[in-house]
Design a protein that fits this description.
Layout (H helix, E strand, L loop, with lengths): L11 H17 L3 H16 L1 E9 L5 E6 L2 H7 L3 E3 L4 H8 L3 E3 L11 H6 L6 E8 L2 E11 L7 H69 L5 H29 L5 E6 H18 L3 E4 L7 E4 L1 H17 L6 E9 L2 E8 L33 H11 L3 E7 L3 E9 L6 E2 L10
Parallel strand pairs: 7-14, 8-10
Antiparallel strand pairs: 1-2, 1-6, 2-3, 4-5, 5-6, 7-9, 10-11, 11-13, 12-13
The structure holds adenosine-5'-diphosphate.
The site of adenosine-5'-diphosphate (ADP) has 22 residues, from helix 9 and helix 10.
């Protein structure tokens, strides 16, 4: 008994409608795999064949694999590789021409592996190449013409039309796969970078702590003749400590283990302390670092160490990027709902092109290889996260050659912060 399903072969007008429907579907279909399934069922229906499938050239370019098959063949044909050199589909692709085989038993090039895997008997087939802008992507084939008729010119045109649609779908699938691979690589690189930052900051801390500890001790007891040399060691170890602190802060922020613990604090006092701590560094570089304290205490609910780090990074930059003889003014004032802090320098300034990026991680205006200043391009990104954790905002205005102003706002009261000692709030933000 013949168990083949005999599909009604549609009338020419209906065929055109079906073709147009598939063409329209490509533009609207969100799922390309489903689209390819529709495409092969349309191909078999319109050519009056038992089944149709799409084979795609694999990465090595030597084999084809089944990308779309009827559902009852899907699992059986999943891992099957169709060799390009010894298959009719491969022949169609290599020559860029349709292949018609009314009786495959007469074809030495017919590949029997797929039939064996799917427990299927291919008697006849027509295969057309799927080509996108000259690039050979795969093959669309229909198998077993029903009612024992021959493949017609019309069948070929139908298949070529559908193959051109398949070309776009396959190309889109490839692009999606490429984007996904790039995204995975970026995620992987980001993870590696994060773990490098974590390990480096952790491992560098202990030896640096010892250098700083002993240099401080030696400064107390060493003969005055050697004091300048020891000061250089100490100053540079402090600089290294800043870099490592920034790395560690970034690592904590990225891992989400940093949280804001707020207390009632005076921004005026905080700024005074930060400015005092940088005074000797500024003097050393012959810079005037000024803070004219306001009358008001400028009270906010905030995390004092985090605001100190944020301001410290901005002041460090002002000192680094202002030439000797220059000046840096720190201004703190109250505005409705916020306290505003600005650090104004008359240093080298920032080119307008770079200004939008300076708060990005690892961004530096000058290439790391050519610049004479140290740093890792992390300071401002740390400041930004710390201010934003308070529900605040930080920005920069600058003119190249004239100077820069960095300003941040801290809300007097913020609903985004974690209140210290509240047990219901987890340690992660
Ligand atoms: P870095 O550790 O390199 O200082 P930052 O994130 O703190 O990294 O700053 C990023 C870049 O922004 C700096 O490398 C510098 O090019 C520029 N920049 C920051 N502050 C100033 C400033 N006050 N004047 C001029 N350029 C600045």
């Amino acid at each position: 008994m013949d168990s083949r399903i005999v599909l009604p072969v549609s009338e020419p007008g209906q065929r055109l409608d079906r073709l147009l429907e598939v063409i329209r579907l490509l533009g609207t279909s969100l799922n390309l795999e489903t689209f390819l399934d529709t495409l092969i069922s349309t191909a078999s229906e319109l050519t009056g064949c038992e089944v149709a499938s799409i084979l795609e050239l694999d990465e090595g370019g030597k084999q084809l694999r089944f990308t779309a098959t009827p559902w009852f063949h899907r699992d059986l044909l999943k891992g099957i590789k169709v060799p390009l050199d010894t298959s009719l589909a491969g022949f169609a692709l290599q020559n860029g021409q349709p292949v018609v085989a009314p009786d495959v038993s007469a074809e030495s090039r017919h590949f029997k592996g797929a039939d064996q895997a799917a427990r299927f008997a291919t008697r006849s087939l027509m295969a057309v190449p799927i080509i996108y802008h000259g690039e050979k992507l795969g093959v669309l084939e229909v198998v077993n013409k029903l009612e024992q008729t021959d493949y017609t010119e019309e069948d070929r045109i139908i298949l070529e039309t559908l193959a051109s649609q398949a070309a776009m779908a396959l190309q889109n699938l490839r692009l999606v796969a490429r984007v996904k691979t790039s995204q995975d690589q970026i995620t992987q690189l980001d993870r590696m970078k994060s773990s490098f930052i974590g390990i480096a900051s952790h491992e560098l801390r202990t030896p640096l702590g010892l250098i700083l500890g002993y240099s401080t001790f030696l400064r107390e007891i060493i003969q005055p003749d050697y004091r300048p040399q020891l000061d250089i060691i100490h100053r540079n170890a402090m600089r290294l400590k800043e870099i490592i602190d920034n790395l560690a802060n970034m690592d904590n922020l990225q891992r989400g283990v940093a949280s804001v613990r707020v207390h009632t604090i005076s921004i005026r006092r905080l700024v005074e302390e930060v400015v005092d701590s940088f005074q000797s560094e500024a003097n050393h570089k012959r810079l005037t670092l000024r803070f004219d304290p306001p009358q008001n205490d400028l009270i906010v609910e905030g995390d004092s160490p985090k605001i100190t780090i944020a301001l410290g990074n901005v002041v460090t930059n002002a000192i680094t990027f202002t030439n000797p003889g220059g000046h840096i003014d720190v201004v703190a004032e109250s505005i409705p709902g916020h306290v505003k802090v600005s650090v104004i320098d008359n240093g080298i300034g920032i080119p307008a092109n770079d200004l939008p990026q300076i708060f990005d991680r690892f961004y530096q205006v000058e290439s790391h290889l050519t610049r004479k200043h140290g740093g890792m391009g992390l300071g401002l990104s740390v400041s930004k996260v710390m201010i934003e954790m308070h529900g605040g905002r930080i920005w920069a205005e600058s003119m190249e050659g004239k100077g820069s102003t960095f300003t941040f706002l801290i809300p007097v009261k913020s609903d985004r912060v974690v209140l210290s000692g509240d047990p219901s709030i987890p340690d992660k933000l």
